[in-house]
Amino acid sequence: MKHILLVEDDKALAEGIVLVLRQNELSFQCCHNVKDAKKVLDKNSFDLILLDINLPDGSGLDICRGLRKEGRMDPVIFLTALDTELHEVTGFQAGADDYITKPFSLAVLRERVMAALRRGERRQSEKVAASVMKEGPFTLDFEKQTFFMGDREIILSRTEQKLLMVLMKNKNRILERDTLIGRIWGNDGEFVDENALSVTIKRLRDKLETDPRKPEYIQTVYGIGYRFQINEEEPS
Question: Which neighbouring-strand residues pair with 29?
Answer without folding.
Answer: 5
